[in-house]
Every structure is written in C-alpha cells, then in structure tokens.
Hints:
Elements: H1 28-41, H2 49-56, H3 60-72, E1 76-79, E2 84-87, H4 89-96, H5 103-119, E3 122-129, E4 132-139, E5 154-156, H6 161-167, H7 172-182, H8 195-208, E6 211-214, E7 221-229, E8 235-244, H9 253-270
Antiparallel strand pairs: 1-2, 3-4, 3-8, 4-5, 6-7, 7-8
Helix pairs in contact: 1-2, 2-3, 5-9
Protein name: IclR family transcriptional regulator
Domain IclR-ED: 90-273
Keywords: DNA-binding, Transcription, Transcription regulation
Amino acid sequence: xxxxxxxxxxxxxxxxxxxxxxxxxxxxxxxxxxxxxxxxxxxxxxxxxxxxxxxxxxxxxxxxxxxxxxxxxxxxxxxxxxxxxxxxxxxxxxxxxxxxxxxxxxxxxxxxxxxxxxxxxxxxxxxxxxxxxxxxxxxxxxxxxxxxxxxxxxxxxxxxxxxxxxxxxxxxxxxxxxxxxxxxxxxxxxxxxxxxxxxxxxxxxxxxxxxxxxxxxxxxxxxxxxxxxxxxxxxxxxxxxxxxxxxxxxxxxxxxxxxxxxxxxxxxxxxxxxxxx
Length: 277
C-alpha cells in the first residue's frame, strides 16, 4: 500500500498577502527612518539635526532617535565639530552588495579597463536610477588630473554624458516625465536649460550613437558616452570616458565617440543584449 509523502515546506520569502500594499503591511517607523537615510544621502556635505527635521517635516526628537539607531549600526556618522550627520561606512557596505546581483558590473569591468588604457582617460559605468544617473563602477586614469565619479555617486541626467546617452534612447513621454520631476538646473554656461535645446542635443546624440557632456556639469571637464542595451534592445546602462577638456579637445571627440561606442557594444554583447530596434 502506497503512502503519500508530504513535500517539505518551502521557505517563504513573502507571506500570501505580499501584494497587499495597504498601511497594515507598512512599518511606519521604518518608513520614516528610510526617509531620513535617503535625505541624508543626498546631502554631500552632511546635515545638522535641525536641517533634516525641517526638510522632512519630522520632529527633531524623532529624527534624532533614527540617527542614533543608525549610528549604532555604522550606517551614519556624527561629526561633533560642526554638529553634522553623514552617511557612514555601513551604508556603503550594504549598498556595495547590490553590485554583486548583476553580471553587468562583472562584464563591464574588463571593458572599462581596456577603454581607460586605450584613451588614457577615466572610464565609467552608470545606470538610470530614479530619474538620475547612478555610477556603478569606474576605472581611473593614471594621469594626475582626472574625473572622479566613485560608485554610488548620482548626477542629473541632462548634464551628464551617460545621462544624455540614456535619455536619447527614451520615448518622448519618459523624457518629459524625468524633466518634469527633476527640471533643468544650470551648472555652467554650457548647460542645456531649455527643453528645445536639450531635445535637439538628444536627437543629435541618437544620430551619431554617442553623447557629449561639453563642460555642462563642470567647467574644464568633458565626457563622451554611449548606451548599453539588454536582450530586449532597451538601454539599461551607459559607458563613458571623462577627463579635462585639454585632453579631450573638440576635434578629438569623434575618435573618443568611436571608442566608447565599441566599448558599449562589447558590454551589450557580454550581457546578451542587442542594439536598439
């Protein structure tokens, strides 16, 4: 006589009602803590307790409890001199583990190294994250003067080589939504601060296959970037070289563009991607 053998219970990653996004499934105190952490991460020079509380509309006492708890975990640090709070090493360690989830970083790294050696300039890898460019990886040039975008750095898309390379591959509706949310802040006299001017630049970017940041974020620095595509032909990342304008003169930009396009194609093929349809 056969007996039914029960299958071992599977470990559950989510309860049955995981799709329920109602407040009963939200830990409000944790949600508020994440707001504090996210806001602090946006403030490159740190922030005082009163600044954070004011920005978030939370009481100083509540924000302090969050910061004190995060400090104990090394996720934030406190500088007693200016009385400012900063993102700590613990946050970097947690964030850096994200990079292990995808083969993009792994596939791109040798290409970044080769691109840096071929051009003599810093090579970068970035993706679009919440309407901005998030830099994932970088191989720095050996030159003394160099561009520096450490992993985790964010930059506005309209004033970034990688940002414009990705925007050029987005639909008109997507571009409009990003610009509606983030605007067109002016950083230098060369920044595109009107939609017509930016859209014209994006059309030119699409036509030639690479984007140029011509001192639009920082005077004296240029960047040339091209998109990386996934298996669906969607632009999922960008690769670039950046450096001083003296080493990337205007007349040399097409040559840099060709090298960046070739590097982006290598990474696209490495992740099983294909060009835009």
